[in-house]
Amino acid sequence: xxxxxxxxxxxxxxxxxxxxxxxxxxxxxxxxxxxxxxxxxxxxxxxxxxxxxxxxxxxxxxxxxxxxxxxxxxxxxxxxxxxxxxxxxxxxxxxxxxxxxxxxxxx
Length: 107
Hints:
By secondary structure, the chain is mainly α. It is built from three helices and no strands. It has helices spanning 8-28, 36-55, 63-88.
């Protein structure tokens, strides 16, 4: 009887994704302060790269396909950077809720 075996790339990517999942879980309980977010985003980026290379088969594609996939990852990085800049430059987050002054309230 001939049994099907998964290709080494699929098995390797599965093990890598499980290892990265375990690393994410372990680091989520560590008090890293301000580094929790960047480390989590770095691990998530590596996971996305593993999925793109193995399951999108970018290793075996033409250079134009790789450039377009890279442009998508670049755009994601720009959006994450803009969100981080927006969050860090706010003077007070979340904003405090204060009562409306009497002169501004509607009678």
